[in-house]
Design goal:
Layout: E1 2-14, E2 19-31, E3 34-39, H1 46-53, E4 61-66, E5 69-70, H2 76-82, E6 84-88, H3 99-109, H4 114-127, H5 144-156, E7 162-166, H6 174-189, E8 194-199, H7 202-207, E9 210-215, E10 218-219
Helix pairs in contact: 3-4, 3-5, 4-5, 5-6
Length: 221
């Protein structure tokens, strides 16, 4: 089932001096239960596309639809908080919060009580392969691979079926990158998530179920 759809999506950056067409009519469906790779060189439009899928902006033409509804008709702040879980290359964990508190954060925004949020956080940390002892550690006490696992656990705390990953292995060594990719594959293939990975890593493209290759804002055929 397609949870996210792009219909003739266009995006134009307009400055005082120039107009740049970052996306020029991209159409694609992203289904649950699969890992989808979005690939392309710098300037191809893939980062802009991720921003639109994450609800950070709206297309200047065409539509991005979540579960059949265009993001232009949604409360984007609520969409970002409850529907579009994003995993970043730089982890973006709160350094002064513990692992448990980082994972609990999106739950508490939705009104989940602290005790229940803590229990869910413990289960999610275990799900991504971290020991229970990690719950009370701070991000700086963890390796890069462990921090990315915490970022995945936090995204899962949103309880959405859509996971958007921006170069999730970009700051990791080969072994940790492989572990993170394996987690994302299990989430898609065993738990039914729709995982969209924006990447320049050809090894991810080789393992993805579908690949959207962008070049100068259009799909490369």
């Amino acid at each position: 089932m397609a949870i996210l759809e792009l219909r003739d999506v266009r995006y134009t950056y307009q400055t005082q001096y120039q107009k740049v067409e970052a996306l020029r009519g991209v159409t694609r469906s992203f289904e649950t239960g699969q890992v989808h790779a979005v690939m392309g060189r710098s300037g191809s439009g893939k980062t802009t596309l991720l921003s639109l899928m994450a609800g950070l902006d709206l297309p200047t033409g065409g539509e991005v639809l979540y579960d059949g509804t265009a993001t232009a008709g949604l409360d984007l702040q609520r969409y970002r908080r409850e529907k579009a879980a994003v995993i970043y290359q730089s982890f973006r964990l709160f350094p002064l919060l513990t692992v448990a508190e980082n994972v609990m954060y999106p739950m508490e925004l939705r009104g989940v009580k602290p005790r229940e949020a803590r229990e869910r956080a413990a289960a999610l940390v275990d799900r991504v392969g971290l020991p229970a002892a990690a719950l009370d550690r701070f991000p700086t006490m963890l390796s890069g691979g462990e921090q990315q696992r915490v970022a995945i656990a936090r995204a899962l705390g949103m309880e959405t079926s859509l996971l958007l990953a921006d170069e999730p292995t970009g700051n990791l060594d080969t072994a940790n990158g492989e572990n993170v990719l394996a987690i994302l594959e299990r989430l898609a293939h065993e738990s039914g998530y729709c995982v969209v990975v924006v990447t320049h890593d050809p090894s991810i493209g080789e393992r993805a179920d579908t690949v959207l290759r962008l070049r100068d804002g259009v799909e490369e055929r």
